[in-house]
Design goal:
Blueprint (H helix, E strand, L loop, with lengths): L7 H7 L2 H10 L9 E5 L5 H8 L3 E6 L2 H10 L4 E4 L11 E7 L8 H11 E12 L5 H13 L13 H10 L3 E13 L5 H9 L9 H19 E2 L2 E14 L1
Parallel strand pairs: 1-2, 1-4, 2-3, 4-5
Antiparallel strand pairs: 5-8, 6-8, 7-8
Length: about 250
């Protein structure tokens, strides 16, 4: 089960880098026209459409009905299903499961991987990218410090593994890892409020239960402290680290 709720309108307008970078991940797929692919955590369907354009039968899966409303409106010719990543099924085994910027939001990784293996044909591919070890650590460490100053507990609601940790996990469930890399990717944000908006989009769970004025004060203090590190040549950057993997059943 994913541990985040989405603002689909803001996601599409201000955070297009999520699916734009996902196009690079597609290159790891051994794709053939007619093969069946699940886009797991498809969001607004942009990458699902690109996979479909390659001649594959693609099914988009996402737990956010808000995102799927947008996906179905934009790409009515594609099948989209609202389902949990740890328990989805499409009624048949598939040739590949593709996922971009999703797995770090999943609470139960073993259930996720177990279900992926269950849905794949023998020889089927898993191709994915998500947050790896150290992802946005500057942002989270700064927010954590601001919380502690106020006597508040800062919860980290995500999973950013090392290569060794995650590839071992995949192998334990019967997947053979063919490719894995961990790399820094400082990621430009939109506008002068880019970092604050990033926090409001991707990291509001730790703020639950706090008054709005307290939330905004913490965000502003964190932004001020991070400016020397993450504001460069008139642009905000998030200190992303990504893990990219290809594995075969």
């Amino acid at each position: 089960m994913a541990n985040i709720k989405w603002d689909s309108k803001s996601y599409t307008s201000n955070f297009s880098f999520v699916y734009e970078y996902g196009q690079e991940v597609m290159d790891l797929l051994d794709s053939k026209p007619g093969m069946t692919v699940v886009d797991l955590g498809c969001g607004n369907g942009h990458l699902t459409k690109l996979l479909s354009d390659k001649g594959m039968e693609v099914i988009g899966i996402d737990e956010s009905e808000e995102m799927l409303v947008l996906a179905r409106k934009s790409y009515p010719q594609i099948r989209f299903i609202c389902a949990d990543a740890t328990s989805f099924t499409v009624g048949k085994k598939v040739d590949a499961i593709f996922s971009n910027a999703v797995f770090h939001w999943i609470d139960n990784q073993d259930d996720l991987i177990r279900n992926i293996v269950e849905q794949l044909k023998e020889g089927g591919q898993l191709v994915c990218e998500f947050g790896g070890y150290g992802n946005t650590e500057l942002i989270h460490a700064t927010l954590e410090k601001e919380f502690h100053k106020r006597g508040l507990q800062y919860s980290r609601n995500f999973y950013f593994p090392t290569i060794g940790e995650y590839t071992s996990r995949l192998e334990a469930h019967g997947l053979q890892v063919k490719y894995a890399t961990l790399f820094d990717r400082p990621t430009k944000q939109v506008g002068e409020d880019g970092l604050a908006n990033w926090i409001r989009m991707f990291n509001m769970l730790p703020f639950q239960g706090l008054e709005k004025v307290v939330q905004e004060h913490i965000i502003q203090c964190a932004v001020d402290e991070l400016r020397p590190m993450l504001y460069k040549e008139g642009n905000w950057y998030a200190d992303y680290v990504r893990i990219r993997i290809k594995a075969v059943k």
